[in-house]
Fold:
Amino acid sequence: MGRPAQAGRPFVRYNGHVGETVDLLRLADSSLALPRLGGMARPDGVVIVSERYWAFASVDGGIREGRMPQPPEILHDIPLARGLVRLWASLAPVFRRSGVARGRERLLIATAVVAPLGLAFVGGPWSTAAGIALSLLLLLTILRGRALHLHGAEHRAIAAAEERRLVATWTGAAKPTRFSPRCGTNFAALALPVTVVADRFLPLAPEFWTPLVVLVLSLALTMELWRMVQRSSRGFWHAFLVPGLALQRLTTREPRLDETQVALRAVAAVLRRELGSAA
Structure:
């Protein structure tokens, strides 16, 4: 790859199968339809997910794979509930015992998820919003060091799949954007103002359980807003993405080619199962 590794970011090691990966990417480039992909960056690799499968490609060359949880189909059609189900499913590769995160990292991510609940029950004005802000701070702590570069690589690999430029991105001939309109950073940027508004204006009696209801409803409402933004082609809805895209300048860094290839290997692993099951 021609350039010396930067301090703290050694080059990625591969355990062979590079030719097989490129063949899979070439097959995907020629496919008429591919599943929608999402992902998550970690300090030691990249997770790529479809609705049915996930794969984790590590910087040491390893690959781990698994199946995504499949909630009852009826939940996908119920407003508010469908968003919470989707949010829970997105964390499955991390929290499962057979998932990709080590115990300490699972604890840190769990703290980021639970923090809003704790502060919400403390009470007082803006307590729920403060909990969300604390979660953002903890997640920024997780997205540190090399994870920032791998976060950009994750976005680039997913964009390459959507643009059918996977092989060109693998070789470095193409560089799709490292910013993603579907990144969880965008969701977090939406969740904070929605939670503040819900905390102030939802007509709920001041009971002990009220903060929990406000938080859950806020997340569910944010997911519904998120769905509308993702499905709309109108500029009005896309304006809701501006804060999250701006925040991605903090949560991503420009990846090297070998880091982009880590994410592409995870993409290839997921698409191998998806295209194989469709054959």
Observations:
- The mean pLDDT is 81.
- The CA atoms of residues 156 and 176 lie 5 Å apart.
